[in-house]
Every structure is written in structure tokens, then in C-alpha cells.
Amino acid sequence: MSAAAPRARDPYRWWRTGLFLYTGLFLTFLYLPLIVILLLSFNDSTSTGFPLQGATTKWYAQVLDSADLIAAFANSLAVGATAAVISTSLALLLALGFRHGVRGQSLVLNLILLPVLLPGIVGGIVLLIFFGYMEIRSDLWTTVLVAHVNYVLPFAFLTLYPRVHGFDRTLEEAAMDLGATPLKVFRHVVWPMLMPAVVATALFAFTLSFDEFIRTVFVSGHDRTIPVLFWLLVVDEIAPHLPAMAVVIILVSTALSLAAFAIGRRADRST
Amino acid sequence: MAAEAVAVSIRKVGKRFGNVAALDDVSLDIRRGEFFSLLGPSGCGKTTLLRSIGGFEAPTEGDILIEGRSVLHLAPYERPTNMIFQHLALFPHLGVRENVGFGLRMKGADRAASARRVEEALRLVRLEDYGERRVDQLSGGQRQRVAMARALVNDPAVLLLDEPLGALDLQLRLQMQEELRRLQRQLGATFVFVTHDQGEAMAMSDRIAVMNAGRLQQVGTPAEIYERPANRFVATFVGHANMIEARLTGRAAEGLAEAEGPAGLRLRGIAPPHGATDGGVLAVLRYEKLRILPHGADGEGIGATVVEKTYMGSSLRFACRTGAGATMTADTPNAMPQRDIGEGDMVRLAWSPEDVVLLTD
Ligand SMILES: Nc1ncnc2c1ncn2[C@@H]1O[C@H](COP(=O)(O)OP(=O)(O)OP(=O)(O)O)[C@@H](O)[C@H]1O
Ligand SMILES: [Mg+2]
């Protein structure tokens, strides 16, 4: 008799199948280029492209050996770290200030966030003109750093502000009630509780800076960051070690972003 | 009152938020070692007054003295007060022991001595085994105790408590009430306790200040507040009472006065102060002071009919209509002989003149 029991028809069967296919396509579209790059990075051929000619790790050796690349990497790390620290500090101060409700606050807020909408190329040109007018020579520690802080700051503020804004003021009052001067309140209560959010913001800021290309290419002069170097390599010569370089950069950026994400999650739980 | 017995002196304090007068000409003295409650409906200014004592609000008028010294110019961290916040405000990034030790650490107290005092404070609130816990690993009642220990370890001249039991369920609330009272007695400390729960205020306080709309209504012991309400607001806000609009007709002996209520109801009660002998008064008679007797009982009281009987567990409430048409309500213990009285029954209502308070405002 059990054989007679009709199976209930799944009314969503077609929908489910369609969704499955769609998801598959979506993921292929997203990840295929990465897989291709990964394959090419091990390709034993001086011309980048298919067909694959056997496996080698020599491109990785070359990447890790290339003075240009090491220098650019060092530049990117240094500028990224500095820009991250500066923009996160500024964003923190700004967010802390905003808690006290200054006059014209929403106008200031909008002015801070507006540059986010500015196309990168416009930003680059504006900075180039500005630095030219000020007669500031293009260089890593002046123009590039300024350009990066300028670009990253609104994002850092956007990331940090909700956390700072949501901070429970009565905790500060409680600390003050227990004898903490405003400075001690910050040091012993506000800072320890905001620190994870600050670190996450700094990492996020770093990845933004590390990735920044358009503005940087306008103002970098003879100094090169990783994206700028890449671009030059692509334009000047189709260098065979490019895919290996790309893979290295992807790994580094992913690791940083994951770290930022993990720390951000911890910050969410602790506040 | 001797000046040195006063812990906190509030002098003509006013506080405006824009157009709202959160406090209006409030003056009162809180004695050293007393459990003092601020009682009033929501928005009456209790928190504002407490925060003004703690230094978190600056009064727009008047002065506040602690131990005889004006504290208006002192920041919260300079005042000899500690506060227990409504939502406790425990530091989530610190453990129980660090929370309790926070105040001592901020004052740069000696480490070994601090550690000892923290343990002592934890023992005081019966949390000696919980020092290592994180505060989010504690129950509501335990968190409450941590907040108390965190404040008390600093040995404040005055402890300020802003409805600290408001978030607890009834059982725990009663338990913590007892605990607070025990702590206060044991330490002999001055507690200023904000609540909008009259039962809580009655059960715990040495004295109560009743507030309404930013103004002080009455200050007194729980019995004074309950038995001798100073005005209509206090009489209605605290407990349940028959409120009978009446007219003074004359004075009687021993501080009593005669009044006439609606439908010729003759009342005698405690005369209003200021010696008024005529004009409108409000006669206040607590439900449980109105005795309800089965019809047969002779002599005493006036005749009435039970309109409604409400069962309330330990007590019964009878709404009655007098022969002359006035409605009066009586609470009695749920016991004989009142237990057998039913709706529609004829009864007699009786009361003593000492239980009737005549109020002019
Ligand atoms: N920071 C503020 N800004 C503006 N108005 C305020 C502020 N704090 C309190 N008030 C107003 O002052 C009045 C008294 O507030 P308060 O908090 O002291 O009342 P409360 O008696 O503690 O009430 P509750 O029992 O609800 O806590 C209220 O009308 C309130 O709206
Ligand atoms: Mg309040």
C-alpha cells in the first residue's frame, strides 16, 4: 500500500532548479578569472595566456626576487599603514566630537561623506592640480599619503561612527562617578571598548589605501605602489610573472580583509 | 535637626530643561545614615534630583550641600557620592573583580589594600566566589550585587540609587529590597533611593519624599506619608482611599474638625493645619480603615448596601452605597465575618475620626 502513496509534488521544483543554475553561473562568473590567474601563474611559458605549457614556480621566485616589486610592496605597506593610522585617528576624533552634538552637525556630516561620491579620476585630477599649484613635488610621503588619507577618511568615518555613536554614555558616567577624570574615562572605559572597532577600521582603511590606483597614478611621481607598478608592467610589457604577482597580492589583501572582518565581529559582540 | 546630622541638604533647587521645570524650588535635608526615598510618578524629577546630587546635572537654581559643603562646583569624580544606575552600567570589558575595584583604581589606592577591600565588598554582597566571572556571565540579581559592591567599596558619604530594582521580576525584587536594607543597616550608610513604587518606598525607607511635577509634596516617615497625607496628590498617589468632597462646619476637640459630605454625610476627622474652620475640604479615609460589619451588628456606623465585592487573595474589597447615596469602599482581610458578605447585602460601615484626614488642598 505504501507504493500507492503518491509523492507530494514540490511546487517549487522549477524555481529551485533555476536558482541552483543561477547561483552556479554567478559563482563561475565571479571566480573564473581568479582561477585562470591562478593557473596562469604556474604556467611554464614566457607569453601569458593559454594553452598551458606545464607547471613551474619560477614566476613566484621571480616575483619574490624582483627589486621593483619589493620596493612597491614596501611603499604600499608603509603608505597604507600610515594612511590607515592617520585617517582612523581623525575619524575617531571626529566621531567622538560628534557625540556631543555640535551645531550644524548634519551639514558637517554630509560634507565629510560627499567625497565618497566623487569619481576617482576627478579626485586624482583635482589633487594633481592642487599639488601643482602648491608646487608640491609628487612623492610617496607627501602627495600620495595626502591623496590616500583624503580618499580613505570618509570611509573610516563611516565605519567608526556607528560604533562610537552607539556607545553607552552611562558607562562613562559610571566611570566618572567612580572617580575617573575625563582622561581616565577615555583610557579605561571608552578606549578599551572601542579598540576592536578602531582596529577593524584601520585594517579596512589599509586595504582601501593598498588598493587605491586612480588617484595614486596621478600623484605618485617616481614612487610606485603595487597597483601603479602593476599598471606599468601591463602597459610596458606583458610580463610573464604578472599572474604570480596578482596571486600574491590577492592572498595578502584577502588575509587583511578577513582579519578586519574577524576583528569587526569581535567588536560587535563586545559592545 | 542638628546640622552635623545632615548628609545632604537640598536648598531651593530648581532645574529647567528648556521650558520644562524638572525641579521647582525643592528643599529637603537627608540625614546621615538614613534610608531616604524619592517617590513620585514618572517624569516628576526624581532622576534629575538624584543626578544633581551626583553631579551629572547642574541645577539652574539653589544649592546642594553634602556634609555641610556646597558641591555645585565639584565634578562627579570629585564628589563623595556614588551612584547605582538604573541599568547598572557595569563595564562589559572588565570582570567582576575589576568592576568592583574600578573606583579604588581610579583613586590610585594601594594595590594590596584595594584587593582586600574588593574581596570584602564581594563578601558583603555574597559574591565572593564570582570574582573571576565576566559580568555577562551573571544573572540579573548577581549583576545587581556587583553594582552595589562597585559603589559601596568606595565608602561613599552618600549612595544614590536610581530605581536599581526596576528591571527585576517580583520575587527577585523583594529579595533585593531586603538585601539593600540589610546592607544599609549593616554599613550605617546614607542611601538616597529613587522609586516610583510606593510599596517599595514604604517597605524600605526611614523617610520618603513624595514629588510631583518637579515639586516636593511631602517629606516624612512612611507612616506619616500614609496616615497623614499632606495634600490631595499624596493621598491619591500613596495607597487607596475614599475621597469625599466636604465642607468644614466647625472645630471639635483634640485637633479634630466637623465636616459635612454629600447627601448630609456627617464626618469628623483630623483638622487641616492653618486653623481653617470653613470652606471646602477633602476627607480622606483609607479603604482598610473603613470597617464593614454584617447588618445585624448594632449601634455603630451607617447603613449601606454592597454594590460590588472584589476578591484580592489576602483581602476583600467591598464597594458600598450608603443610604444617602454616597459610594464608599472598604478593604478587609479575607476572613470571617466579612468573608460571608455578598453583593446586595445590607451592611454597616464604621470608622474612627482619627482615621479621617481633612485636607484643604
Ligand atoms: N536631558 C533632558 N533634557 C530635556 N528634558 C529632560 C532631560 N532630563 C529630564 N528631562 C525632563 O525633566 C522631567 C523630569 O525627568 P526625570 O528623568 O527627572 O523624571 P523621573 O521622575 O526620574 O521619571 P521616571 O520615573 O520616568 O524615571 C521630565 O519631564 C523629563 O522629560
Ligand atoms: Mg527616572
Short description:
Chain A is mostly helical and 271 residues long. Helices cover 75% and strands 0% of the residues of chain A.
- Using the coordinates above, name the CATH class of the largest domain in chain B: Alpha Beta
Oligomer: heterodimer
Number of beta-strand segments of chain A: 0
Determine the number of helices of chain B (DSSP H or I, runs of at least 4 residues).
Answer: 8
Weakly predicted, low-confidence segments of chain A: none
Topology:
The complex is a heterodimer of chains A (271) and B (361).
Chain A: H1 13-41, H2 58-65, H3 67-98, H4 105-113, H5 120-133, H6 140-165, H7 169-177, H8 182-211, H9 214-219, H10 226-236, H11 242-270
Helix pairs in contact in A: 1-11, 3-6, 3-8, 6-8, 7-8, 8-11
Chain B: E1 6-17, E2 20-31, E3 35-39, H1 46-54, E4 61-66, E5 69-70, E6 81-84, H2 96-106, H3 111-124, H4 140-152, E7 158-162, H5 170-187, E8 190-195, H6 198-204, E9 207-212, E10 215-220, H7 222-227, H8 232-237, E11 241-251, E12 256-260, E13 266-270, E14 279-286, E15 291-294, E16 302-311, E17 315-322, E18 327-333, E19 346-350, E20 356-359
Parallel strand pairs in B: 3-8, 3-9, 6-7, 7-8
Antiparallel strand pairs in B: 1-2, 1-4, 4-5, 9-10, 11-12, 11-14, 12-13, 14-20, 15-19, 16-17, 16-19, 17-18
Helix pairs in contact in B: 2-3, 2-4, 3-4
The complex binds adenosine-5'-triphosphate and magnesium ion.
Pfam families (chain B): ABC_tran, TOBE_2
GO molecular function (chain B): ATP binding; ATP hydrolysis activity; transmembrane transporter activity
Organism (chain B): Falsiroseomonas bella
